[in-house]
Amino acid sequence: MTDAVTGTADAVGVLAALVAGAALGALYLLGLWYTVRRQPRLKYPGVWLLLSMVGRIALLLGGFYLVMAGSPLRLLACVVGFLLTRIALTRRLGPRAALAARSSGSRGGAP
């Protein structure tokens, strides 16, 4: 009976790590999106980009470490959640969406 309980607890932990990885991925990519959007208006864009990168990486690695809790399987699930979020967001908001937004805005005055 204890093996079944332990197996269920492990499965729940791995599923929670997957969800946490997806949340970390969303935070990381939201921070990247915000940083890139602010670049044209900043006096020192390189400094902002560097500080943002360091902060995002620190958040990501710290989150991975906390979620992992010593389990390589949880770390793997967390990374998979991060990658799935990255794939989903880049497909949803990737180059096609950016090109569509630019082309619709640039046609305003031309016949």
Distance between the termini: 74 Å
Strand content: under 5%
User: In sequence order, what are the helices and strands, one letter per element?
Assistant: HHHH
Q: Note poorly predicted spans.
A: 106-111
Kindly provide the radius of gyration, computed on alpha-carbon positions and rounded to a whole number of angstroms. 19 Å
Mean pLDDT: 85
Helix-and-strand structural type: mainly alpha
Characterize the main sheet. Answer: none
Percent helix range? over 70%
Shape: elongated
Q: How many strand units? A: 0
Q: Given the structure, what is the number of helices?
A: 4
Tell me about this structure:
The protein has 111 residues and is mainly alpha-helical. Helices cover 86% and strands 0% of the residues. It contains 4 helices and no strands. α1 (2-38) packs parallel to α3 (72-93). The longest helix is centred in the first third of the chain and has 37 residues, at 2-38. The N and C termini lie far apart (74 Å). Mean pLDDT is 85; it is low at 106-111.
Write the layout of secondary structure elements.
Layout: H1 2-38, H2 45-68, H3 72-93, H4 95-106
Provide a concise account of the structure shown:
The chain is an all-alpha fold and 111 residues long.
Key structural traits:
single chain, 111 residues, 4 helices, mainly alpha, disordered C terminus
